[in-house]
């Protein structure tokens, strides 16, 4: 697949959002990529000032061979996209942040997220520092579209990947983060960085509790954690922690939190089993009880999602590899999220 670059002056208009039509689950509907002129992945979507903003990774071909550590994901910058409505025109606001403008970062600008507080937009992103350790950075702007200016240092005490910030109805913001294998979460298992832990806890640990995503409430200025990171526990139907060997249900990466009808929904990717799953709880800290699959595997190795309320309807943003057929060159998509009358999310078969 060749990709065609279309650029106008300041704003680059991406192709019209290809939604096909948003049929209810079970009805075959062709969901088209939202952006066709760049490869995009890991879409974190938010509604700011009545507009939908998408904060994705920008996939590139760097000719680095594929490995279990995600060495082939060598992203160097971010673009921000916006739409007036689902199905509307997708506007590319250009480069919002480049690795060369982040003093502490070396490479691999992975899945980002954004938040707003008191007139400032905050852009959170993981990148490897000069020692090859993933940290979470923060950059700020007065516009949701950027460009963003990075802080000199990563967030103190941060590690691993995939930051996702949830603002609760009481105004408190929480950051969820973590990813195993290439995301290095397992290397922090003992509290200190252990380079020898490559993918997860390893053989012989299958019956131990699975590694957990982490969460911390953000400081008032949104630039640091107000407390040490805590485990996000996911329990099974008997109230027992999911086990490391439970690959179809345990957390791998790509955490997201949303609140619906007063309940907290923690959702995530199971990585090597390619599912998007969710668990439900009564506090943003958890514990969360495993509920089910949001989406079955897409084309490609990973998927990574966000869930957002757009004028009372809920949508799932995610990615697959339709445009390239290659696992590291992905494209973002959106489709409606459907629930039953108890709030349970209906499984999507992409
Ligand atoms: O895009 C790089 C990594 O792949 C993300 O950080 C993960 O969530 C996975 O989508």
Which H/E pattern describes the elements? EEEEEEEEEEEEEEEEEEEEEE
Number of domains: 1
Architecture in CATH?
Answer: 5 Propeller
The major pleated sheet works out as: 5 strands, antiparallel
Shape: globular
Distance between the termini: 21 Å
What do we call the CATH topology? Tachylectin-2, Chain A
Would you tell me the structural class of the helices and strands? mainly beta
- Note the beta-strand portion: 35-45%
State the CATH class: Mainly Beta
Instruction: Kindly state the percentage of residues in helix.
Output: under 10%
Kindly state the mean pLDDT as a whole number? 92
Spans of at least 5 consecutive residues with low confidence: 1-27
Strand order of the largest sheet: 1-5-4-3-2
Radius of gyration: 19 Å
In words, what does this structure look like?
The chain has one domain: Tachylectin-2, Chain A. Helices cover 0% and strands 39% of the residues. It contains no helices and 22 strands. The strands form five sheets. It has a five-stranded antiparallel β-sheet with strand order 1-5-4-3-2, with no helix packed on it. A hairpin with a 7-residue loop joins strand 9 and strand 10. The two termini are 21 Å apart. The protein binds beta-L-arabinofuranose. The site of beta-L-arabinofuranose has 14 residues, from strand 2 and strand 16.
């Amino acid at each position: 697949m060749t990709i065609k670059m279309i650029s106008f002056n300041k704003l680059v208009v991406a192709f019209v959002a290809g939604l096909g039509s948003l049929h209810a689950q079970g009805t075959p509907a062709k969901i088209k990529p939202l952006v066709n002129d760049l490869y995009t992945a890991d879409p974190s979507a938010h509604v700011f000032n009545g507009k939908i903003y998408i904060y994705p990774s920008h996939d590139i071909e760097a000719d680095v061979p594929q490995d279990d550590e995600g060495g082939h994901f060598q992203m160097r910058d971010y673009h921000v996209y916006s739409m007036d409505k689902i199905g509307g025109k997708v506007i590319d606001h250009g480069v919002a942040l480049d690795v060369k403008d982040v003093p502490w970062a070396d490479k691999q600008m992975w899945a980002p997220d954004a938040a707003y507080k008191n007139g400032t937009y905050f852009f959170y992103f993981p990148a490897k520092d000069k020692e090859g350790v993933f940290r979470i950075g923060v950059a700020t702007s007065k516009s949701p579209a950027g460009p963003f200016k990075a802080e000199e240092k990563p967030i103190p005490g941060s590690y691993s990947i995939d930051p996702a910030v949830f603002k609760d109805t009481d105004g408190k913001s929480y950051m969820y983060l973590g990813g195993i294998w290439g995301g290095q979460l397992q290397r922090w298992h003992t509290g200190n960085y252990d380079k020898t832990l490559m993918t997860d806890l390893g053989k012989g640990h299958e019956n131990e509790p699975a590694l957990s995503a982490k969460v911390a409430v953000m400081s008032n200025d949104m630039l640091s954690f107000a407390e040490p990171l805590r485990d996000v526990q996911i329990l099974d139907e008997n109230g027992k922690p999911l086990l490391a060997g439970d690959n179809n249900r345990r957390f791998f990466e790509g955490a997201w939190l949303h609140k619906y009808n007063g309940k907290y929904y923690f959702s995530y990717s199971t990585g090597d089993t390619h599912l998007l799953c969710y668990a439900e709880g009564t506090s943003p800290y958890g514990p969360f009880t495993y509920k089910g699959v949001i989406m079955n595997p897409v084309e490609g190795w990973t998927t990574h999602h966000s869930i957002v309320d757009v004028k009372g309807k809920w949508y799932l943003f995610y990615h697959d590899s339709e445009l390239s057929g290659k696992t590291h060159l992905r494209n973002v998509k959106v489709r409606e999220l459907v629930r039953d009358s108890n709030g349970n999310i209906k499984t999507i078969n992409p």
